Amino acid sequence: MRIGFDAKRLFLNNRGLGNYARNLLYGLEKYYPENEYYLYTPEISNEHVSPALLNSANVHVRTPAGPAAWFSSFWRSVRLGTVACKDNVDVFHGLAQELPGNIRRAGAKSVVTIHDMIFLRHPEFYKPVDRWIYFRKVKFAVRKADRIVAISQQTKQDLMETFKISDDRIVVVYQSCNEVFYEQRTERERQQVKEKWQLPGNYLLYVGALNENKNVRIILEALRLLQGKVDLPLVVVGHGAEYKQKMLAYARQHGLERQLIFASETANPSPRELSAMYQMAAVFIFPSFYEGFGIPILEARFSGTPVIASNSSCLHEAGGEDSRYFSPQNGEELAGKIVEVLAAGKEVDDRVAKFHIEHSVRKYMQVYQG
Predict the structure, then answer these.
(1) Which secondary-structure segment (H or E) carries 361?
(2) Whose CA is closest to 288, among 326, 254, 250, 320?
(3) Contact predicate 333/327, CB 8 Å
(4) Contact 37, 59 (CB under 8 A)
(5) Tens digits of per-residue pLDDT, 45-104?
(6) For 302-320, what is the mean pLDDT?
(7) 2-172 homologous superfamily
(8) Domain 180-353 coded CATH 3.40.50.2000
(9) Where are the domains of the chain?
(10) For an engineered disulfide with 300, which of 168, 199, 284, 358 has Cβ 3.0 to 4.6 Å away?
């Protein structure tokens, strides 16, 4: 089978959408090497993609050539169906909520993954023009796609309510995470990471973007309430200059500067290094107002780190029964959960195995072949 992918974010995005695309392609190539995979991208960056994947004989990268290189956005958004047709693909998969305007020209089964509808559920986090663009892209994609993949039951429900799509057109396929998080790091690896980032012996951890939707400042509110009782620092791995300044201002106001560590100021950890960070953390906290799924929760669970997440949207789908939940507006409730988890200590999470990447790619192959 020949499968084509809109792979822009696989190459150029180092956050959720990029991680999703890379994990999926890695899993497909590993467990289904008999297929041919075509990656369509306006440009190539090797910063986030494994050379082993790109050097595989069954992986083919396509970029715009000639005059099309000057109009790479048009090439991707409008012309990609024609390009995929020349490669004679059997399936074209839009990995990030959109399909090219001439997708029917591909002559292939079309699949689109919808990650979330945050721009509709929380419009206050987006500019009006961005909301309009996102809505237009998703509306076109779900109407043209032969099959729609939602990454959570929450996203499926949002799609059905917003676009009046029938249940049988949408299949839920949970994401996985990089297999490196399935492994225990050695004591030497942990020590190297601890020294490189000057990490304390014990800490709370947050991994993800820094913006209003991620709601990371509420962790500082909880730490303020716990002053004198629990004085663990918060290690933050992620970027977002404007929101970071808000966090710093709050920390200064309440004497929490010494408990706030922005690890990404030192360097962005590799997946293996990030795995060590998770495993050394006392608790991982994910306080987002709204998500499509929450890969960092899986990374923490596979790493054996207790998870506290907000009780909003679909995070219980990623966190399962062994995680703890709190209202994303309630710092006092979060403080109580932190105390609870620290008292309980680390426990074995046997239920996370169902999110193994092999299970995920098997379901995608069923979508492609169905």
Answers:
(1) helix 357-369
(2) 326
(3) yes
(4) yes
(5) 878 888 888 899 999 999 998 777 788 888 999 889 999 999 999 999 999 999 999 999
(6) 93
(7) Glycogen Phosphorylase B; (3.40.50.2000)
(8) yes
(9) 2-172, 180-353
(10) 284
